[in-house]
Design a protein that fits this description.
By secondary structure, this protein is α+β, with helices and mostly antiparallel strands. It contains eleven helices and ten strands. Strands 3, 4, 5, 6 and 7 form a five-stranded antiparallel sheet that branches. Helix 7 packs across helix 10 (323-341).
Length: 387
């Protein structure tokens, strides 16, 4: 209750989804309505696309650098027999009262607090500097006027704080004791091998994404598109609304957001329109290939495999983002893995895709043609926003 700020975060799952359909999984750049007809494409050859992606490797130096980072983030906390100073960690019990009465959330026991962290309201941490183990301090404080709990905002309170221990941070040393304190490993050698495996997995994921994006971009660059003006208009206005709402969240107008990004409002709208068109190209290609190759019948296994690759479950994804958005991402992932698995990697030591089964069904027939098509260069942001 007495923590200083209003800014605590809910846990979020950050997915390694692909750019065309990022949508609400990663920001403002995705499609809000997957049923919009964006147009048609005459595909270039999409099997056997040439890429050059080397298999990832992890060096000893990279492992050592990671170890040093972890050591710095996990210092030893050693109890000391002296007065507390800024940067120390004190273990405390405290009880807060307002007008002589305890208030909800104002008391706790056996709490570790780093002095100088700014976690508590003003005067709480500084009031404990100089305190020793076993000492009780009385702190006369006032909650900020903008404190999130209105009944306490601007109110004078008293805290009785007992210091149970004073601990100082000391540089950690990589030994078996540190390994056992901070991980599930038992020895330094096991720990380093675990770090190496984690780094390799991260690099492998990056290599796979590079391979997928290189193939997709090659197909886009060599294919011919006809866009639906109405479809682009819908997507443009959806995107414009998202950016406008985002600007409002920060107390800004769209024009001010544009200026913050080094553009005037007209240029910003052109940027939005360009983003919509590039996203449309990717979406059209993905859906067309999915239909041609029988990849568009998504199974629960497809969705669960995608979820597991992102460190979560299918049900969690659906509850967070909705069925339609999850389906869009799973389809994209499925098609890009298919394209990468059929690419020709000419690297000397070529990267390989991690094993994940792709479900293929009977090829579905080509559907819907655009009722109102444009060539790639015909539509502008000004035309689009008018619809």
């Amino acid at each position: 209750m007495i923590e200083k700020g209003n800014h605590y975060e809910k846990n979020r799952i950050i997915l390694s989804v692909r750019p065309y359909g990022s949508s609400i999984l990663t920001g403002c750049s995705g499609s809000a309505d997957g049923n919009v007809n964006l147009g048609t494409v005459t595909l270039s050859e999409y099997k056997g696309v040439t890429v050059n992606i080397e298999a990832p490797e992890v060096t000893d130096e990279e492992v050592d650098t990671k170890v040093e980072t972890i050591l710095a983030q996990n210092p030893n906390e050693v109890e000391v027999d002296r007065a507390a100073k800024e940067g120390d960690i004190v273990n405390i019990d405290f009880k807060g009262t307002k007008d002589g009465e305890a208030f909800e959330g104002g008391s706790a026991e056996d709490q570790d607090l780093e002095l100088g962290s700014g976690k508590m309201i003003e005067g709480f941490e500084s009031g404990l500097i100089g305190a020793k183990k076993g000492e009780t301090k009385t702190l006369d404080l006032t909650f900020p006027e903008n404190y999130r709990e209105e009944s306490l905002a601007g109110q004078a309170v008293v805290f009785e704080v007992t210091v149970n221990a004073v601990k100082e941070k000391q540089d950690a040393v990589l030994d078996d004791a540190f390994v056992q304190r901070t991980s599930d490993y038992q020895t330094v050698d096991e720990y380093k091998e675990g770090i190496r495996a984690d780094l390799l997995a991260q690099k492998q994921k990056t290599a796979e994404q590079e391979m997928e994006q290189d193939v997709l971009q090659d197909i886009i660059d060599n294919s011919d598109f006809k866009f639906s003006r109405n479809g682009l208009s819908v997507r443009y206005n959806q995107m414009l609304k998202q950016y406008t709402n985002q600007a409002k969240m920060y107390g800004m107008t769209l024009s001010q957001m544009a200026q913050a990004n080094g553009m005037d409002e007209a240029g910003f709208k052109e940027y939005i329109y360009s983003s919509v068109k590039e996203a449309a190209k990717k979406e059209i290609v993905v859906k067309d290939i999915a239909a041609k190759e029988g990849l568009d019948n998504l199974t629960d296994e497809d969705k669960e495999a995608f979820a597991q690759a992102n460190g979560t479950s299918k049900d969690t994804l659906v509850s967070l983002y909705g069925e339609d958005t999850v389906n869009e991402q799973v389809l994209q992932d499925k098609v890009l893995r298919f394209l990468a698995s059929n690419a020709d990697n000419e690297a000397e030591n070529p990267a390989k895709l991690s094993e994940r089964e792709v479900t293929v069904t009977e090829t579905s027939a080509d559907q819907e043609s655009s009722p109102e098509e444009t060539t790639e260069a015909e539509t502008t942001a000004e035309e689009t926003k008018a619809n």
